[in-house]
Amino acid sequence: DTEVTQTPKHLVMGMTNKKSLKCEQHMGHRAMYWYKQKAKKPPELMFVYSYEKLSINESVPSRFSPECPNSSLLNLHLHALQPEDSALYLCASSQDPAGRGNEQFFGPGTRLTVL
Amino acid sequence: RKEVEQDPGPFNVPEGATVAFNCTYSNSASQSFFWYRQDCRKEPKLLMSVYSSGNEDGRFTAQLNRASQYISLLIRDSKLSDSATYLCVVNMNTNAGKSTFGDGTTLTVKP
Questions:
Q1: How far apart are CA B31 and CA A98, in angstroms?
Q2: Using CB atoms within 10 A of its CB, is residue A60 exposed (0-12), middle (13-18) or buried (19+)?
Q3: Does residue A38 sit at the B interface (CB-CB below 8 Å)?
Q4: Of A11, A89, B57, B75, which has the fewest Cβ atoms less than 10 A away?
Q5: Residue B27 touches partner A, C-beta closer than 8 Å
Q6: Are strands A18-25 and A10-13 parallel, antiparallel or unpaired?
Q7: Are A9 and A23 in contact (CB under 8 A)?
Q8: Tens-of-pLDDT digits for all 115 residues of chain A?
Q9: SS3 of A42, please?
């Protein structure tokens, strides 16, 4: 299994809703990532989990809350989002955060619209 | 100055053409280099990792010049299916695992 899966594919939510994005990989990778991507821009790093511990938080607002229940799963909990948070949210994984195994493999993303 | 800079593009080339993209990076401690391609409304997909002096995969050749701090991607015999945005990614191989993305170069191959 060489893929990263993400659910849901699309999500529309109001500013008062609470929702979660899910990501899963079964490649034995020990690093997992959340990115946010706006149209015509490169992916923007949000969080990195390394060996199930949060290693990077790129000063992301607290309305985004990551969780790594185990080495295969990564969640992103959303609460009180703003319309400007509408974007493609990408999950990625890599064998190791450092060293030659750090090629990242991306999931298909969740396209989020905040009304 | 951005940490990773790419040719702004867009590149519009005919089928069969050879096209080259350049990417420069500012941190000399950078250790790993990658090219990804991203199709419209899709996720980035790893095209090539670039190690040591570079590598080749079919019509694609990636080169690394550490002295000048740039990497390049050469595409020979362009196909319509090569139309995409090409992202240059640089990693310092620290324990933190942060990769830095260039803004991407858009390629359109026309019949």
A1: 10
A2: middle
A3: no
A4: B57
A5: no
A6: unpaired
A7: no
A8: 569 999 999 999 999 999 999 999 999 999 999 999 999 999 999 999 999 999 999 999 999 999 999 999 999 999 999 999 999 999 999 987 766 668 899 999 999 999 9
A9: coil
What does the H/E/C string look like for chain B?
A: CCCEEECCCCEEEECCCCEEEEEEECCCCCCEEEEEEECCCCCEEEEEEECCCCEEECCEEEEEECCCCEEEEEECCCCHHHCEEEEEEEECCCCCCCEEECCCEEEEEEC
| Interchain CB distance below 8 Å, A48 and B87 | no
Give the span between the Cα atoms of B44 and A107, in whole angstroms: 9
Dihedral sign computed on CA atoms, order B70, B71, B74, B75: negative
Q: Does the distance separating the beta carbons of A98 and B97 come in below 8 Å? A: yes
The length of chain A in residues reads 115
A80: which 2 tokens?
């009180």
Name the phi and psi angles at B82, rounded to 5.
Answer: -80, -10
Which sign, positive or negative, has the C-alpha torsion A58, B47, B9, B79? negative
Q: Which of B34, B96, B103 comes nearest A55 by C-beta?
A: B96
Q: Which residue has the tokens 């989990």?
A: A49
